Amino acid sequence: MSARVLIGCERSGVLRRAFLARGIDAWSCDTEAADDGSNRHIRGDLLDHLEDGWDLLAVMHPPCTRLCNSGVRWLYIGGRRINGHDPNGWADLEAAAAFYRACRERGNIPRRALENPIMHAHAVRLTGRRHVQFVQPWWFGDPFFKATGLELINLPKVLPTNRLTPPRPGTAEHKAWSRVHRQSGWGKHAADRARARSETFPGMADALAEQWSNLLDVRASLPRTEARAA
Length: 230
Known about the structure:
The protein is an alpha/beta fold. It has one domain (4-229): Rossmann fold (3-Layer(aba) Sandwich). It is built from 7 helices and 7 strands, in the order βαβββαβαββαααα. The protein has helices at residues 14-20, 87-105, 121-127, 172-177, 190-198, 202-213, 224-229; strands at residues 4-8, 25-30, 41-43, 56-59, 111-116, 132-135, 148-153. The protein has a 7-stranded mixed β-sheet, with helices on both faces. It starts with a strand and ends with a helix.
């Protein structure tokens, strides 16, 4: 039987393709269609597919606007604590936290990785988030700053594969490495910027797929060339 991996909340297919290239029976799942049009994409609610017999679940882009530290202000009316709690903001936070908990706890999946942002204290409490490893794209050859938290369940820490030397602050190169932080998840073009921020960097995807594939007992029988084309 082939080892099966589900990449949750992924439209881009970057991590799915990285696993497929290593002979793993990998699928992505999101409420939107796959950007690459792959037939290895499940369009629907991720929580409806956690019982489908997976060996590893990687939820790489769960909804985090209300969980991340930068979003804590929107738990208050007008973004100001002095105005009191915003009921809608807190309801959104509760829903995001419930989704995160379900991804960690639902289904008989032995190995899991849940991506999460730098959370504010309310989010940590409501998600019940445990130990998290934070990694950076530049650990894997991608010249960007973007701290990515991974709550790892029955998975070892991710090892750097191509660690770059970060540029000095104040330089044009440092500004270029930091541009992902200017893609705010709020405002007129929030959806487009959030989509861009959520994609897994290719070097990181290759590292995750390589290191986690090595832990799975059985790899898919697809030839590597066929897996890449799937």
